[in-house]
């Protein structure tokens, strides 16, 4: 009896010691393990469905939800409630119109230029039911960039929202010359060659089109093209497969959201965050989403209280705008319990918690076209993700040494890259393999290859270059540091400096121009600065430049500052000037009060 009690005491002491040791040395062990098991279980389920040729796409899941919960609100938009049945039937009507009147066929690629509204989803789903892939066009792009998008993905048909028809002024003849048919979500059109959809939807059948049109046996079949800016200038069409869209749709679920949650989506649907994570995640759960045409800081919390919102999507700038709103007694009067997004700065994160309550902020890191995703399921402030021994077994990534002056990776005597030590900043690379494929960009093998680094650590290996400088601390938390290359982020959008440079270079009095981002105190990201040399025999014409920029460049990509120079300085010098210009730009600069000694700085727009 005494011996048995001794063993029990020893076992209890051992268990207690192990528990204390785990808490001290591995405080996140169980949280990491359960989260990873949840994600792995979902991934295994996807792979098994592919092996059995029983792929349940996001669209298929939506159709299932429309049958299971037909009367549940799916989308609430500007006071209107649209149930799962409503969206299902309207998308059926559109699918029938696309088949019978537009003449679309399975495998066609269709470009979609629409603002946030329920019909964005109806058109998207209607096209998918016909078996078409859909290219989401950024509603800010114009002229040359917009025409370029069609050649990227091979789209020969454009569906445009009623509020964006005017944005085609000036390029409609070019579209028609390229044999691209344009269909507007209107009942009538002033242009005889622009077709209308609303009048045809009214008389169309809401019966489902044949299921075999939407059926797929491969998770790796393209379903969407989402355009992303990069270091190569014009927008690139990232290939989005069913596999990627299904993984993204599990984001809300992975963080613990349920069908009882109400999602608030105010980010643009042409981006992967709102469409793949937001709408896809709502569909997976069978939840309800509040869809906004645009984000409004003054209306955000009013909407949340009115609709009992529990989960919202964000980018870092959105949270900062909310923190900058006047304080009220109702700041903590809401049911919001979770935010899912990226780019949240530490100081804004803490202020957001202090101001609006201890909302679980779930940072997600990953690019639209990338093959790697980090998820900060622990909620540690200032980190974009969490890694550990188990994660590294499944997802192969590395941080390598990067020379910021030479703007290139540091290599050893054999030409191979070098890993950084824990805590050091390095360029994030993700290994390309069968379990982590990189699908690249439509229409250009060269662009796809440019995002890959080969022979990184051994001959024959291949890694996706994220272009992001990151650091991993001793506990396995991942922190974002900066971006490399010719891209900077402003107003929640990636600005490709090459594209802006080429557009500005079309102005007749500009001989040479270089665009880069500068930090502004109190603002997220970097604002555009265009350094330029005026062509000999010409004079700087601010009015002409302003009108050109307004017409040709999206609002978020327009340079806020113009720097006139007599000769162009090297990139390294520009990097040294950024700190000076960031300080200068915090003052109220304008053509009237700017310094007129060389170099001169003006606000452009």
From TrEMBL:
Primary localisation category: membrane
Residue stretches making up the AMP-dependent synthetase/ligase domain: 64-387
Keywords linked to the UniProt accession: Cell membrane, Fatty acid metabolism, Ligase, Lipid metabolism, Lipid transport, Membrane, Nucleotide-binding, Transmembrane, Transmembrane helix, Transport
Domain AMP-binding enzyme C-terminal: 502-575
E.C. designation(s): 6.2.1.3
Cellular compartment(s): Cell membrane
GO cellular component: endoplasmic reticulum membrane; plasma membrane
SUPFAM superfamilies xref list: Acetyl-CoA synthetase-like (SSF56801)
EC class: ligase
Membrane topology classification: Multi-pass membrane protein
GO biological process assignments: long-chain fatty acid import into cell
A GO term, aspect molecular function: nucleotide binding
Reactions catalysed according to its record: a long-chain fatty acid + ATP + CoA = a long-chain fatty acyl-CoA + AMP + diphosphate; tetracosanoate + ATP + CoA = tetracosanoyl-CoA + AMP + diphosphate; a very long-chain fatty acid + ATP + CoA = a very long-chain fatty acyl-CoA + AMP + diphosphate
Domain of life assignment: Eukaryota
InterPro entries listed in its UniProt record: AMP-bd_C, AMP-bd_C_sf, AMP-binding_CS, AMP-dep_synth/lig_dom, ANL_N_sf
Family per similarity comment: Belongs to the ATP-dependent AMP-binding enzyme family.
The name this protein goes by in its record: long-chain-fatty-acid--CoA ligase
Species of the source: Perca fluviatilis (European perch)
């Amino acid at each position: 009896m005494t011996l048995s009690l001794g063993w029990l005491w020893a076992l209890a002491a051992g268990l207690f010691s192990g528990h204390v040791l785990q808490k001290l040395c591995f405080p996140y062990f169980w949280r990491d393990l359960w989260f990873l098991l949840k994600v792995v279980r979902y991934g295994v389920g996807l792979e098994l469905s592919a092996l059995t040729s029983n792929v349940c796409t996001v669209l298929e899941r939506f159709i299932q939800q429309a049958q299971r919960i037909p009367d549940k609100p799916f989308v609430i938009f500007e006071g209107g409630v649209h149930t799962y049945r409503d969206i299902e039937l309207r998308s059926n009507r559109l699918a029938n119109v696309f088949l019978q009147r537009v003449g679309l066929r399975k495998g066609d690629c269709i470009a979609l230029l629409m603002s946030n509204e329920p019909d964005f989803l109806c058109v998207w789903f209607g096209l998918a039911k016909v078996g078409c892939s859909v290219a989401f066009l950024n509603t800010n792009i114009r002229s040359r960039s917009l025409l370029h998008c069609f050649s990227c993905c091979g789209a020969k048909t454009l569906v445009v929202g009623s509020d964006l028809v005017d944005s085609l002024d000036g390029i409609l003849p070019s579209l028609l010359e390229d044999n691209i048919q344009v269909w507007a979500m209107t009942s009538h059109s002033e242009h005889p060659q622009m077709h209308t959809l609303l009048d045809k939807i009214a008389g169309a059948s809401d019966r489902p089109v044949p299921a075999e049109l939407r059926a797929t046996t491969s998770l790796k079949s393209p379903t969407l093209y989402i355009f992303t800016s990069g270091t190569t200038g014009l927008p690139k069409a990232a290939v989005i497969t069913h596999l990627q869209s299904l993984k993204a749709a599990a984001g809300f679920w992975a963080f613990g959201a349920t069908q009882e949650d109400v999602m608030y989506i105010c980010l643009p649907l042409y981006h992967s965050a709102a469409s793949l994570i937001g709408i896809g995640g709502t569909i997976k759960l069978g939840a309800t989403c509040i869809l906004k045409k645009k984000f409004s800081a003054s209306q955000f919390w009013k909407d949340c209280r009115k609709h009992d919102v529990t989960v919202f999507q964000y980018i870092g700038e959105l949270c900062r705008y909310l923190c900058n709103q006047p304080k009220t007694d109702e700041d903590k009067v809401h049911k919001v319990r979770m935010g899912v997004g990226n780019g949240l700065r530490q100081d804004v994160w803490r202020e957001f918690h202090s101001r609006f309550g201890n909302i679980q902020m779930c940072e997600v890191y990953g690019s639209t076209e990338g093959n790697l995703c980090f998820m900060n399921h622990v909620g540690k402030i200032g980190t974009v993700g969490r890694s550990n021994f188990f994660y590294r077994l499944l997802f192969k990534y590395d941080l390598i040494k990067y020379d910021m002056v030479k703007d290139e990776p540091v290599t050893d005597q054999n030409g191979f890259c070098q890993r950084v030590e824990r805590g050091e900043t390095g360029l994030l690379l993700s290994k390309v393999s069968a379990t982590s494929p990189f699908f690249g960009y439509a229409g250009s093998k060269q662009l796809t290859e440019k995002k890959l680094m080969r022979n990184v650590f051994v001959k024959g290996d291949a890694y996706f270059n994220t272009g992001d400088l990151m650091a991993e601390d001793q506990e396995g938390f991942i922190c974002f540091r900066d971006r490399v290359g010719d891209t900077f982020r402003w107003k929640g959008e990636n600005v490709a400096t090459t594209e802006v440079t080429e557009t500005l270079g079309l102005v007749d009095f500009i001989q040479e121009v270089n665009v880069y981002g500068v930090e502004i105190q109190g603002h997220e990201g970097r604002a555009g600065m265009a350094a330029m040399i005026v062509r000999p025999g010409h004079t700087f014409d601010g009015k002409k430049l302003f009108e050109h920029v307004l017409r040709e460049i999206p609002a978020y990509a327009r340079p806020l500052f113009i720097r006139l120079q007599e000769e162009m300085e090297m990139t390294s010098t520009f990097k040294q000037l950024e700190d000076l210009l960031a300080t200068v730009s915090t003052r109220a600069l304008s053509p009237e009060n700017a310094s007129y000694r060389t170099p001169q700085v003006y606000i452009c727009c």
